[in-house]
TrEMBL record:
Signal peptide: none annotated. Residues 96-115 are annotated as: Disordered. Pfam families: ubiquitin (PF00240). It comes from Sphagnum jensenii. InterPro entries: Ubiquitin-like_dom (IPR000626), Ubiquitin-like_domsf (IPR029071). Residues 1-77 form the Ubiquitin-like domain. Residues 96-109 have a biased composition (Basic and acidic residues). This is Ubiquitin-like domain-containing protein.
Length: 115
């Protein structure tokens, strides 16, 4: 099966076996985005569910063509404890720009100036 992993304007199409663990999926992503698995969090978008890396995709209802959000760990230190923070980015998936909408907008500007 294939899943779509998205972050900002980037989409990764990954071929996965339903029985593979989320950790194995994160390892595939590490090879593509050069971010260590410990600094990645995968979230099934519908319903919004943080995926447990010890469980399989199938166990967590991640099916073919599933949309999964990728977030990264926010680097920083807790000043009181001098330990690394456990904060994560919010889901940030930017919608693609519709080139036809942009053309219609430009076309309307031209037509309105000719009136």
């Amino acid at each position: 099966m294939f899943i779509r992993v998205k972050r900002k304007k980037t989409t990764y199409f990954l071929h996965c076996d339903p029985s593979e663990s989320v950790l194995e999926t994160k390892q595939k992503l590490q090879a593509l985005c050069d971010v260590h698995v410990d600094k990645q969090r995968l979230i099934l978008v519908e319903p919004e569910t943080i995926l447990d890396e010890a469980k399989s995709l199938e166990e967590q209802q991640v099916g073919c063509d599933a949309l999964v959000a990728l977030t990264y760990k926010i680097q920083g230190m807790n000043e009181e404890t001098n330990e690394e923070t456990d904060s994560w980015e919010e889901i940030n998936i930017e919608k693609p720009i519709d080139p036809k909408a942009s053309l219609r907008k430009d076309h309307n500007k031209v037509n309105n100036t000719n009136l």
